[in-house]
Amino acid sequence: MTQVSSRSTVSGPITGGKRGWPFAASTLDISKYGYTEAEYYLEGTATSYKLAPGAELTRDGHWNAVPSGESPFRTRMLVYRPSDPVKFNGTAVVVWNNVTAGYDLFSAESLEIFEGGFAYICLTTQKVGIEGLPPVNQGLANWDPERYGTLSIPSDDYSYDVFTQAALAVGPNRSREDVDPMGGLDVRRVIGQGGSQSAGRIATYVNAIQPLTHAFDGFILTIYFGAGSPLEVGDVVVNINAAPNARPRGLRGTNFLRDDLGVPIFVVNSELEAIACYEVRQPDTQTFRYWESAGTCHVSAQGQRDRQAKSLRDGLVTAPLAEGINRIPMIPLYDAAFHHMQRWLTDDTAPPSQPKVEFAGDPAEVVRDEHGIASGGIRLPQADVPLAQNSAIPLKDDIYAYLGGSSHPFPREKVHALYGDKATFLAKFEAAAKQSVAAGVLLPRDVPLLLAEAAATYPN
Question: Are the CB atoms for 10 and 179 separated by under 8 Å?
């Protein structure tokens, strides 16, 4: 592909600062996996975009954008890469850090990233990541002004090109005259990845910007609500903290993802986003895969627990862990997606197609089985051999409850009626987990981890 030329430079590695470590750095001992962690500044000139005259954000996703303006920017990239070039699989993943909480969110704890040999570049792409959100400002510049005080992204209008500039700075054609954030690795492919709000922004990148830049070789969108973000927002930023008790509105799919780019696009959704995307589902093709997982939700209790540990280390002010939310984490599916994307890009083996969550009625609603668990879809072992009704059904009528869904453990009597004893349950659970491995939605390393959690959850 022909790529735009880079208008940015890289400097670093960044050290020091008031805290002495990068914000939201991995909680793993990455040296155990033969990886290094280094942070860099990325700065230059970013372009903003607008719809071409007469163009619209059409449902088909074929959006026509044109450059609108330019502005200087300075941001940071947190780079994880193998120390030994032999281990590198040739693929760099550029992550669009999520800023819904008012600070950078990303997960640099994926075992598939580190055991699979990827490079992982966590990019502060939006204004809020630097400046934070009221009432508690926890953006980078306030968290460590010595380290991050010079960072600036003037508007999210420039975020799409900041994303492009990062891809070019770590990609196959990057400049190696000064600082090389990839340490000389032979990068052959660059993937763009983002979840939730970031997935919506990557959707717009796919539909409007990738046709202009050809900067990425593939995209992974996770927990994606089926709607792209605006190209132009000016000074406006999304702030769910402004009305945390408000009933969520507008989280419904409005557009398809562009189908003529010639690069693979992989969407991995929980039950909650399956509901949002129901009217904009797309069929699997040679370059598109869409997965939906029954019994899951946007966030999980396990994910919140892991995030809390990182927040405590970084000294963030966060809400207490929510009780009763969904307990089937999506992380194993994300790891499977990285695994399949690598094969898709290297030997043209597309990810296996999966069944969709079942809907019925008008308006369409999720069909549920005798346990209250969604029918159809990807059925992880916690949904196939359940100890609880896990779903996207919220416990309360506010945005945080909406994202957390619910988990209602079965009474002990029901568990014993279903399985008889713990050994029988664990045998069935392990068989279901191995079926998920055979289906391609779990990786073999996940089976003992899930089995241990299931054993600890079984009521005595």
Answer: yes
- With a CB cutoff of 8 Å and minimum separation 6, the contacts of 266 are 218, 219, 220, 221, 288, 289, 291, 337, 340, 341, 344, 351
- Cα–Cα distance measured from residue 43 to residue 40, given in angstroms and rounded to the nearest whole number: 10
Short-list 96, 97, 95, 91, CA closest to 119: 91
Our measurement of the distance from residue 445's CA atom to the centroid of its chain's CA atoms, rounded to an integer in Å, reads 21
Q: Is the confidence at residue 3, as pLDDT, over 60?
A: no
**Which residue type sits at 221?**
L
**Is 102 within a domain?**
yes
Q: What angle do CA 86, 89, 95 make, to 5 degrees?
A: 130
pLDDT in tens, 240-256: 776 666 656 657 899 99
List the end-to-end C-alpha distance of the chain, in Å, as a whole number.
59
36, part of any domain: yes
The tally of domains found in the chain comes to 1
Q: Residue 41 is inside which H or E element, if any?
A: strand 35-51
- The rounded distance, in Å, linking the Cα atoms of 95 and 198 is 9
Q: Nearest CA to 247 among 419, 115, 396?
A: 396
Q: Tokens 């760099």 appear where?
A: 92
The set of long-range contacts for 17-23, using a CB threshold of 8 Å and a minimum separation of 24, is 17/144, 17/146, 17/147, 17/148, 18/144, 18/145, 18/146, 18/147, 19/143, 19/144, 19/147, 19/314, 22/76, 22/78, 23/103, 23/104, 23/140, 23/143, 23/144, 23/148, 23/314
Which tens digit of pLDDT belongs to each residue from 349-383?
999 999 999 999 999 999 999 999 999 999 999 99
Residue 76 lies in a domain: yes
The pTM score is 0.97
Domain annotation covers residue 311:
no
| pLDDT attached to residue 177 | 78
For the segment 32-49, what is each residue's pLDDT rounded down to a tens digit?
Answer: 999 999 999 999 999 999
Q: Cβ(224)–Cβ(272) under 8 Å? A: no
Is residue 431 within a helix (H) or strand (E), and if so which, with residue range?
Answer: helix 422-439
333's tokens: 């599916």
C-alpha distances out from residue 54 to 48, 58, 208, 213, 257, Å: 18, 12, 14, 21, 20
Domain range enclosing 77: 8-263
Secondary structure class of 134 (helix, strand, coil): coil
Spatial contact of 419 and 459, defined as CB atoms under 8 Å apart: no
Tell me which residue of 379, 388, 206, 366 sits closest to 292, measured CA to CA.
Answer: 379
